[in-house]
């Protein structure tokens, strides 16, 4: 409260940033007097009217404070309702858009062959010798070398003039050597994965023989058990003892399938750990090969992760990758030496990796894996001299990964899983001479019959005769006719059998092509439901954010009341429709959908029906139109794949345009100080954006017109040594920059000196040390062990996060405003010198000087932005840390531009929209693209040694969406920066309704927050509509679907951040000011 401050009878001319009070009020003579620092009436009135007492004033203040708190909670409730609409809309669109395949529960059985005429297939002599087909092996060792790309496994062959070998070449020669030197014992082939190239989806395809669907990509690290027929289940049904070693994803997919005494799962997510999993697999794998342990197991699945982790951490072209591949080479040589003649040895990659070591998409490098099979007996062959040597590249003679399922099933004497669409691998059944056409025909006829049976059951289950099943039946009939003719001849004819074999293969591949193109049906009604909710929510948001003329906080109570009633009634209606059978969807989904519809109808009544407070939200200024143009043009552009690919360049153009317009507008300001400051910050804004644009991570579609600079090279996932200096430069420069903006308004007082000058700088310095140690670990500069370096880094990272969130949050909640108040007592003698001689003598006066008064709201709230900046900077790589520093600087320049152009108090949309553009632009400048492979999963281990939920996902979110989070936290500053202190004016109050300026500020904050959300909601709606419209586009899963997923994720993140931190933080900032100056 201000009751402890004593004032004289008049005021001297005050500085708008530092207020000095001594006598009767005079008009502020500095620039923007009426906007910068009006004389706080509570400060004068409360001291000059002691007769009125303080109890009444305190009672009024308490009432105003309670009103502010209630309306603040109401504003959070409105934002929560907007989040609910977004979640429901995105869910229903996603439910219909991201394809899901109908899973058949049918299981293949030994007792039931897939043929209608069982007598047409030669019977197996004994059931113990195999099922459906004579088995070739009793046991198997299946080794998955995660991310084993095909070009890792073959000798380097230059494909362009001047191309030289890289560090990942020629380090695992055993696969190629055995396939060339002993072709009857081994073969090596390109093994093409179906996107998305994430481990969980690949394991599903490798064990079921089915095609993946994109919706599974989100569950890559939280897999659910496979409930359809699969290879592992068939092995278990056959009574085999199964052992798993390595990646624990297998246990999510196949719970309780493996022998608990011999199985050893390892955490698969710690991509910074290259050795623990691989060494653990070796320690438990080779003892099982001892003769005394031979009877303890039948099939071993060993999943090595070191190659994949080396790619994620360093990229493929790094010495660590070469070392890992050499280790795998030795492992395979040791396995060759130890397996017996009855054991099949399989080595394969589940996917590849791109030039930076990441995967998840569908580029060639990501889908190109390697498959190698080995037997000590001479069982394998080649049907043509042209196939005697493994292909030089993955584009030659490749096979899809689903071909592994029928191949392993028939080699081990098992039924082919019911849902399989793969084909037997030719080399595995051609025989030592490569001429066993009878065997090739037999296994391919079996596989074709099973595919036909599956195809038929799938069509029946769907209950739709769309003709798709019969498009490939002609191929089946042709193959069967050819087989029947060759059987009647008695003696096998090589050419005839080759023709039959080709006919069955043609049927299999044609069916696979049909399923690839038309596998699942988009649920268009569900997609339309989602789009409808998003459109309705966007319309309401437009009018709530930009169309309401009155105080938004006055609408909060009636709006939330009717929204609650509408949601409740809608949920009841939805549940009733499900129970009555009208709605064919789960009760929770039906209730959520109708709750959203009910709330939209209720909100429409409050917003549109009440007269007098609504206007058409059409911009009335250049700034308003500029905000609309930025948002709409970007949204429309997402219909173009090239526009989407080059989104970062479009955003830079928008930001530069804003800077130019701001500079021109600043030159037209009346005040010289405004003109100079506005032009300076406009130029600075453009320059900072240009500097940030030098940090880039190119996506595949941008090549060769883009050069990556975010890492040491285009083929690396580590920072260059020179980039390690960037965090130290940020430590040196950024706190000084923040200090200069505080000092400009004389606000570098109080907690700001401690937190910005010491706490923020200390956190940045510790972050710099962290990345220096990370670089030392990568380059092996020190003799310290990797475990010691990791422990030190984890400690430093946890210290920085503790400083940012624990100490920083405490400081933000409990600190006073960034002002300094000094009181000086004058003497009667000194006073008399300044008076007329005729003036009567009077006692000395008190002078109160307040520094930081002109930006009391902005500098207090900016402490929260500093906290988040420190945490987000820690989660970025060194180049990204530098760009986050530039982002904070640009935010401050933007705030000064808004102030000098008088845009703070007029609630212009341009401030929140430019903040949103900055968040989107810097998303690309921190090493990200709208593709799954750019997610930097390893950042989950910056402050942790192992996965810990929910912290690990939160840390990855801070890294991925850090710029959007930082700009979301800064949104209230667009209406708080250099906003004049506004206090309760008794002259404008009524006994029933005291005037409360704090609620006006809250209304402006809510408007700014909703405008910020409006940008991301529009982008999300646009990417949603375009993805739905272009759902059959060739680039859907490469460009449009990932951009839709990114838009939905960003919208959810900014909604949550605004509710929990940004708008919520305004409460503590306002209460801090009210505590000192009253309400």
TrEMBL record:
The Gene Ontology terms for molecular function here are:
mannose-ethanolamine phosphotransferase activity
Localization: Endoplasmic reticulum membrane
Q: How does it sit in the membrane?
A: Multi-pass membrane protein
Major subcellular location class: endoplasmic reticulum
Q: Where is this region: Disordered?
A: 1-60
- Give the keywords, sorted: Endoplasmic reticulum, Glycoprotein, GPI-anchor biosynthesis, Membrane, Transferase, Transmembrane, Transmembrane helix
Name of protein = Uncharacterized protein
């Amino acid at each position: 409260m201000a009751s402890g401050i004593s004032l004289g009878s008049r005021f001297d001319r005050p500085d708008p940033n530092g207020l000095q009070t001594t006598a009767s009020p005079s008009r502020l003579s500095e620039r923007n007097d009426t906007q910068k620092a009006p004389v706080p009436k509570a400060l004068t009135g409360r001291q000059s009217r002691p007769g009125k007492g303080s109890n009444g004033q305190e009672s009024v203040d308490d009432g105003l404070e309670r009103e502010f708190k209630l309306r603040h909670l109401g504003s959070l409730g409105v934002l929560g309702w907007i989040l609910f609409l977004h979640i429901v809309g995105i869910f229903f669109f996603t439910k219909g858009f991201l394809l899901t395949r109908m899973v058949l529960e049918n299981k293949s059985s030994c007792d039931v062959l897939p043929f209608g005429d069982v007598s047409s297939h030669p019977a197996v002599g004994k059931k113990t010798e195999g099922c459906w087909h004579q088995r070739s092996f009793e046991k198997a060792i299946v080794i998955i070398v995660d991310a084993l790309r095909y070009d890792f496994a073959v000798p380097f062959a230059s494909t362009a003039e001047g191309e030289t070998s890289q560090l990942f070449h020629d380090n695992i020669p055993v696969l190629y050597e055995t396939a060339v030197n002993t072709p009857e014992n081994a073969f090596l082939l390109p093994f093409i994965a179906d996107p998305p190239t994430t481990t969980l989806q690949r394991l599903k395809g490798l064990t079921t023989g089915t095609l993946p669907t994109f919706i599974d990509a989100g569950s890559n690290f939280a897999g659910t058990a496979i409930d359809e027929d699969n290879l592992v289940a068939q092995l278990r049904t056959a009574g085999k003892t199964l052992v798993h070693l390595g990646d624990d994803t297998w246990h999510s997919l196949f719970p309780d399938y493996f022998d608990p005494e011999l199985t050893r799962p390892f955490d698969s997510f710690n991509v910074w750990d290259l050795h623990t999993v691989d060494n653990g697999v070796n320690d438990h794998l080779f003892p099982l090969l001892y003769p005394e342990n031979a009877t303890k197991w039948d099939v071993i699945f060993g999943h090595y992760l070191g190659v994949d982790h080396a790619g994620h951490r360093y990229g493929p072209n790094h010495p660590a990758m070469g070392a890992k591949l050499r280790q795998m080479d030795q492992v395979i040589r040791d396995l060759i030496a130890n397996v017996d003649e009855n054991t099949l040895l399989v080595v394969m990659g589940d996917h590849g990796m791109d030039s930076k070591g990441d995967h998840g998409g569908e580029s060639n490098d990501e889908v190109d894996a390697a498959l190698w099979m080995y037997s000590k007996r001479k069982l394998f062959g080649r049907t043509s001299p042209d196939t005697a040597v493994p292909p030089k590249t993955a584009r030659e003679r490749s096979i899809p990964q689903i071909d592994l399922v029928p191949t392993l099933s028939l080699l081990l004497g098992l039924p082919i899983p019911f849902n399989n669409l793969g084909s037997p691998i030719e080399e595995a059944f051609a025989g030592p001479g490569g001429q066993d056409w009878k065997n090739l025909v037999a296994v391919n006829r079996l596989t074709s019959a099973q595919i036909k049976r599956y195809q038929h059951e799938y069509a029946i289950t769907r209950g739709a005769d769309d003709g798709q099943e019969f498009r490939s039946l002609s191929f089946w009939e042709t193959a069967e006719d050819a087989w029947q003719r060759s059987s009647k001849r008695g003696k096998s004819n090589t050419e005839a059998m080759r023709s039959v074999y080709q006919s069955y293969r043609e049927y299999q591949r044609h069916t696979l092509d049909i399923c690839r193109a038309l596998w699942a049906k988009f649920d268009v009604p569900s997609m339309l439901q989602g789009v409808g909710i998003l459109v309705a929510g966007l319309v309401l948001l437009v009018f709530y954010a930009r169309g309401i003329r009155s105080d938004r906080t006055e609408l909060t109570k009636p709006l939330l009341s009717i929204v609650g009633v509408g949601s409740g009634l809608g949920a009841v209606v939805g549940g009733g429709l499900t129970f009555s059978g009208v709605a064919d969807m789960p009760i929770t989904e039906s209730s959520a959908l109708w709750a959203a519809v009910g709330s939209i109808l209720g909100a429409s009544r409050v917003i549109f029906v009440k007269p007098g407070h609504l206007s058409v939200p059409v911009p009335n200024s250049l700034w308003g139109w500029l905000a609309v143009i930025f948002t709409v043009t970007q949204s429309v552009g997402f219909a173009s794949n090239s526009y989407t690919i080059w989104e970062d360049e479009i955003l830079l153009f928008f930001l530069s345009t804003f800077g130019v317009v701001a500079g021109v507008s600043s030159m037209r300001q009346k005040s010289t100080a405004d003109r100079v400051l506005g032009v300076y910050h406009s130029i600075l804004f453009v320059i900072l954006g240009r500097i940030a644009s030098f940090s880039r991570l190119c996506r595949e579609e941008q090549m060769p017109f883009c050069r990556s600079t975010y890492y040491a090279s285009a083929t690396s996932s580590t920072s260059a040594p020179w980039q390690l200096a960037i965090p130290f430069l940020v430590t040196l420069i950024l706190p000084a920059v923040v200090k200069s903006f505080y000092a400009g308004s004389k606000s570098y007082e109080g907690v700001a000196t401690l937190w910005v000058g010491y706490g923020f700088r200390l956190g940045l310095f510790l972050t710099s040390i962290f990345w220096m140690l990370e670089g030392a670990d990568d380059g092996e500069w020190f003799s310290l062990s990797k475990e010691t370096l990791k422990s030190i880094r984890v400690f430093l990272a946890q210290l920085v996060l503790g400083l940012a969130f624990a100490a920083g949050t405490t400081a933000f909640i409990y600190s006073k405003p960034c002002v300094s108040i000094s009181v000086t007592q004058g003497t009667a003698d000194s006073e008399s010198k300044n008076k007329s001689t005729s003036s009567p003598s009077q006692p000395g006066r008190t002078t109160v000087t307040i520094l930081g008064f002109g930006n009391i709201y902005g500098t207090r709230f900016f402490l929260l932005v500093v906290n988040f900046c420190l945490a987000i900077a820690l989660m970025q790589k060194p180049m990204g840390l530098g760009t986050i520093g530039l982002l904070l600087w640009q935010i401050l320049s933007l705030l000064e531009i808004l102030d000098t152009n008088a845009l703070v108090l007029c609630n212009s949309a341009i401030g929140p929209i430019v903040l949103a553009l900055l968040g989107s632009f810097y998303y690309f400048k921190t090493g990200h693209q709208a593709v799954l492979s750019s997610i930097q999963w390893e950042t989950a281990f910056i402050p942790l040694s192992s996965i810990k939920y929910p912290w690990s996902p939160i840390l990855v979110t801070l890294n991925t969406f850090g710029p959007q989070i930082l700009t979301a936290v800064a949104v209230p500053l667009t209406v708080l920066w250099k906003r004049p202190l506004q206090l309760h004016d008794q002259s404008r109050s009524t006994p029933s309704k005291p005037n409360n300026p704090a609620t006006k500020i809250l209304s402006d904050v809510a408007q700014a927050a909703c405008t910020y959300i409006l940008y991301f909601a529009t982008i999300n709606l646009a990417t949603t509509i375009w993805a739905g419209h272009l759902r059959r586009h060739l680039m859907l899963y490469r460009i449009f679907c990932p951009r839709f997923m990114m838009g939905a994720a960003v919208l959810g993140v900014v909604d949550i951040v605004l509710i929990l931190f940004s708008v919520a933080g305004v409460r503590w900032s306002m209460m801090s000011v009210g505590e000192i100056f009253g309400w």
